[in-house]
Write a structure and sequence with these properties.
252 residues
Length: 252
């Protein structure tokens, strides 16, 4: 039997960003767009870049991400040729993200000859009507009865987002134009609680369940026959947290 080496058991090298940035939404969205277009990503071992490609550094406070091309040093290639390669690839990046609806700001700096050149890009994802962690109704075809309540998990990537499906209990990719807002209700009075009302697609109350999170509320509803019958019939359920005021009023 072959002996495992340290390389066999090493963790995968982070691609396109430093390890602490892999779960930042704007970084994940940018990486998906770059890889879909076939653009290579910079590879890292720890904080050291070991392979040329796109490098992303998030600005968490603003929702932006800085993108630059990290060129691989090659002894046979001069500085001018490397600078030309970096410029060409950065222009390609700018075109790619503008076409996908991102806001692209070009950052320029002067070289040793005091010549200004494009160095990196500051990117901001397109504004989405369904922010990360928001609830929405997924309607693939208005002519069909299929409905699904989803929690948006990603920024827009092209014309789609990643969403957690209440019906399928897993993440799926859904077109933005197939999402609809949840039915609006009265403004909240009181503080949100861990109790939820479960409604059918017509907005009719089915049952009250307890759960600290949306996922736990869904799991609790799965144990109740009336809720499961509505789910099978309608293809989706709505979940609304009770407020402390609503619970108090119901107890009176």
């Amino acid at each position: 039997m072959p002996t495992k080496t340290a390389t066999d058991t090493a963790a995968p090298r982070p691609l396109g960003c430093l390890p602490g940035s892999v779960d930042v939404p704007q970084v994940k969205a940018a990486i998906r767009l770059l890889t879909h277009d076939g653009q290579p990503l910079a590879a890292f071992e720890g904080d050291r870049c070991i392979s040329a490609g796109a490098y992303l550094d998030p600005r968490r406070e603003t929702g932006e991400v800085v993108l630059e091309f990290l060129a691989e040093h090659r002894p046979s290639v001069g500085r001018e040729e490397l600078d030309a390669e970096r410029l060409r690839v950065t222009v390609e990046y700018a075109d790619l993200f503008r076409f996908a609806g991102w806001t692209v700001t070009e950052y320029r700096e002067s070289d040793r000859a005091d010549v200004e050149r494009l160095a990196r890009l500051i990117l901001k994802p397109p504004v989405s009507p369904f922010p990360v962690d928001s609830l929405a109704v997924y309607v693939p075809d208005p002519a069909e009865d299929y409905r699904d309540v989803v929690i948006v998990q990603s920024l827009p990537e092209g014309a789609t987002v990643e969403a957690l499906s209440a019906r399928q209990r897993k993440c799926i990719r859904v077109p933005l134009d197939k999402l609809q807002p949840l039915p609006t209700g009265e403004p909240l009075r009181g503080e949100p609680t861990d109790w939820w009302r479960v409604l059918n697609k017509e907005g009719q109350f089915i049952v009250k369940v307890h759960g600290e999170t949306f996922e736990k509320a869904v799991a609790a509803a799965e144990q109740i026959p009336a809720a499961q019958q509505a789910l099978e019939r309608d293809g989706g359920l709505y979940y609304r947290r009770f407020t402390s005021w609503e619970l108090s009023a119901a107890a009176e």
